Amino acid sequence: MSEPILLIMAAGMGSRYGGMKQIDPVGPAGEVILDYSLFDAYRAGFRRVVFLIKHEMEEAFRERVGARAERHFEVSYAFQEVGMLPAPFTVPEGRVKPWGTGHAVLSCRDVIDAPFAAINADDYYGVHAFQSAYDFLKKADEGNHYMMVAYELCNTVTDQGYVSRGICSVSEQGELLDVVERTHIVHSTDGPLFTEDRLHYLLLPGETPVSMNMWGFTPSFMQALEEQFAVFLRDTVPGNPIKAEFYLPFAVNTMIREGRATVSVLNSADRWWGVTYQADKPNVVRALQALTDEGVYPSPLWKE
Question: Which residues neighbour 274 within 8 Å (Cβ) at sequence distance 6 or greater?
C-alpha cells in the first residue's frame, strides 16, 4: 500500500473573509494556519501532500506555502476551475462560484493513488486529528471503509458571525449514519443556535458532533464522486444554476444510504480555530501564541 496522502483544499474564494485567507499570517513567526496543518501532518507521518488551488493564485501560493512544504514533503498540485465539467455539461451563464468540496476533491483524481485525508486549508485541526487520520489511512485497504474526524460543535463556532457545519448522527459503534449541513449556526450565551429562516432559532447541544471537512478515503472514492457529480449536474443545477454546490458530505451520505460505504467517526477533543471572518484573526493569533507558549509548537515551526 502506498503512503497516505494529505489533500489540502485551498481553492476557496474567502468571500466572507475578504481576501486570500489561505496565506494570511497568524502565527508568532508569520505562519499561516496551513503551516500548522502541515507541521502536525508531518509529525503524524504524512510525507505526501496535494495542494488544490486555483490557477490565478498559483504564484502567490507556491511562494508563500508551497516552496516551504517542498522541503519536507513530496508535493503535487491540482486545480479547481468552474469549467472542469464532464461531457455533455457546460457552465451555466453567469456562474463564477466554485462547485463545492465534492468537486474540489474530484479535481484531484489524477494525482491520488493512495488512501488520502482531505482537509480545508484555512482550518486549524489540532495535533491529535492528524495522528488519528494517518493511523487509520496507514491501515486502509482498497475497500469503501472511510473515516471522518468529528469535533464538538461548541468547539467550532465563532463570535463574529454565522458558520456552516455538518451535524453528524453517529451509531453506538462509532459509525457515521448521516451528515446534515446546517448553513447558519451562530454562537450565543446559551450555546450554539441554528436557523433556517433567520427568524426562528433552535438550540443545539454543545457536544453535538460536527464535521469540519477532515475526511479519509481510499482512491476508489473518486469513481463514486464522479458518478454523483454527474447526477448533481443533471438533477440539481438546473434548479439553482448560479449557486448550487456539490458538498462532500452529500456524496458520503449517498454512499452510506445506498450501503456502498461505511465511515468510522474519530472524535477529537481539540479546539478548532479558523478565520471565517477578518474579526476572527485576533482570536486565532492569540490561540496559536498560547499553544506555542505551552510548547505544543516551536517558533518558528520549521528549522530551515
Answer: 33, 120, 122, 123, 124, 158, 280, 284
